[in-house]
From TrEMBL:
One of its GO terms (biological process) is polyketide biosynthetic process. GO terms for molecular function: acyltransferase activity, transferring groups other than amino-acyl groups. This is Stilbene synthase. Residues 8-216 form the Chalcone/stilbene synthase N-terminal domain. The active site is at 156 (acyl-thioester intermediate). Keywords: Transferase. The keyword Transferase applies. Residues 242-361 form the Chalcone/stilbene synthase C-terminal domain. Pfam families: Chal_sti_synt_C (PF02797), Chal_sti_synt_N (PF00195). InterPro entries: Chalcone/stilbene_synt_C, Chalcone/stilbene_synt_N, Polyketide_synthase_type-III, Thiolase-like. Belongs to the thiolase-like superfamily. Chalcone/stilbene synthases family.
Length: 381
């Protein structure tokens, strides 16, 4: 059908905690904690070096302590935090970070809190009730009747899923303004274990929050990314490839080494369905769930280092922040394109989560195009 409204990401905001994890230093302290298990120590040192991360951020200052005093490392002199301990930290630290990201997005979009009709909150690294949606509604000053939609425990793909849902809301209700807020404190779930699965997860996850405002652009707004058609797929017989379960000492994560290969094998067919015979996109906003995922998509689509630079830059500087990461990628891409003075440019965004699930959406960087220019030929399925 023809659609005269320009539905777009109108503003983006990001935030990270104050404590910075240097990858080389963290690797050194972790391998020191594994000194009684030299095989695990060697493997940890290798994966920390090869995962594409240089720095990350954490809300937990104890993760910067020496090996013998870090409660999250094996061989520590202190008892590891329980799941209850970690959830208490999550409740205390997640709200200020989410508020900071949301405030940045509202200012970037030049949207008042009174204009927000829907709030989508996204997180898989913690839980409390009344939830993040209720707390943010009160502390941001949103209307008590704002439509609150919590996305809980959906994994890394949930941030892009929230963007896709926002586009559908705005398409059906042109007056809607949707505020998406993602906050993930992944480092709270680092395990005091020498198992390879636990060490792999400890090597590249970081903490952060991101937010965006989605809605119909008005004449006095400068839309950043116009949103197009989206597609969601649950790959069959892949449920055991990515798992995240509640344990006694935080959430236990398992990531299969087969994930990049599975993505490279199955996703091109799904993306082709979305693109519907159209040309290859010029922009690629790939959720950096790991270096191997970016590598797999770079190979299958013959992408250049420039096309994958935003995803690799976010992975290098922040690690994988689960659902919050994709908006960091969009923000990094926006800054690069603005610096180059780029005009309207087509793109495709992809994010992956447990299941295996893939969320994808077409988008267009708006550049300096006017609303009238963008309204000339907008078609949605």
């Amino acid at each position: 059908m023809k659609e005269n409204h320009v539905i777009a990401i109108l503003g983006i905001g990001t935030a990270v905690p104050e404590f910075r994890l240097d990858q080389a230093d963290t690797s050194h302290r972790l391998t020191e904690a594994l000194r009684d298990n030299p095989n695990s120590a060697r493997w940890a040192k290798k994966i920390f070096k090869q995962c594409g991360v240089e720095t990350r951020y954490t809300c937990e200052p104890n993760l910067l302590e020496t090996a013998e005093h870090c409660r999250y490392f094996s061989q520590s002199n202190h008892q590891a935090p329980t799941t209850s301990d970690r959830m208490a930290t999550y409740k205390r630290e997640s709200v200020p970070l989410a508020l900071q990201a949301a405030g940045n997005a509202l200012r970037d979009a030049k949207v008042n809190v009174s204009d927000i009709t829907h709030l989508i909150t996204v997180s898989c690294t913690g839980q409390f009730l009344p939830g993040l949606d209720a707390v943010l509604t009160q502390q941001l000053g949103l209307a008590p009747h704002v439509n609150r939609i919590p996305f809980n425990f959906l994994g890394c793909a949930a941030g892009l899923k929230a963007v896709c849902l926002s586009r559908h809301i705005a398409a059906s209700q042109p007056s809607a303004k949707v505020l998406v807020v993602c906050v993930e404190l992944c480092t709270l779930h680092i395990q005091p274990s020498s198992d390879r699965e636990a060490l792999f997860g400890a090597s590249f996850f970081g903490d952060g929050a991101s937010s965006c405002v989605v809605g119909v652009a008005s004449d006095n707004q400068n839309p950043i990314f116009q949103l197009g058609n989206d597609h969601s797929i649950l790959l069959q017989d892949c449920g055991d490839e990515m798992k995240w379960e509640v344990g006694n000492h935080g959430f236990d994560l398992y990531l299969s080494p087969n994930i990049p290969k599975l993505i490279g094998t199955w996703i091109p067919e799904q993306a082709a369905h979305l693109l519907n015979g159209g040309p290859k996109p010029e922009l690629w906003a790939i959720h950096p769930g790991g270096k191997g995922i970016i590598d797999a998509l770079e190979e299958v689509y013959a992408l250049t280092s420039e096309e994958t630079r935003p995803s690799r830059t976010v992975l290098r500087n922040y690690g994988n922040m689960s659902s919050a990461t994709i908006l960091f990628v969009f923000d990094e891409m926006r800054q690069e394109l603005a610096h180059r003075g780029a005009g309207r440019t087509s793109g495709l965004s992809l994010a992956f989560g447990p299941g295996l699930t893939c969320e994808m959406i077409q988008f267009t960087y708006c550049g300096v195009a006017t609303i009238q220019d963008m309204q000339l030929d907008i078609t949605y399925v």
